[in-house]
Write a structure and sequence with these properties.
It is globular and about 40 Å long. The chain has 59 residues and is mostly helical. 69% of the residues lie in helices and 0% in strands. The longest helix is centred in the middle third of the chain and has 15 residues.
């Protein structure tokens, strides 16, 4: 699907090649139902932020 391929290219660029395509395509499969009407590059940007997010230590 065009959306999935565009998402994968954008995500790979944003993570500077630090994620393998199996992970990226699995992520795309999960996001496709809610992201299909949104620009895949914008969804990739949001996904890269969400995946990189680390919860602050709770003290």
């Amino acid at each position: 699907m065009v959306w999935t391929n565009e998402f994968a290219r954008a995500y790979y660029e944003m993570c500077e090649g630090c994620a393998d395509y199996d992970f990226i395509y699995e992520l795309a499969a999960h996001l496709l139902p809610i992201g299909v009407t949104v620009d895949p590059r914008k969804v990739a940007e949001l996904a890269s932020i969400a995946v990189a997010f680390e919860m602050p230590d709770e003290e």
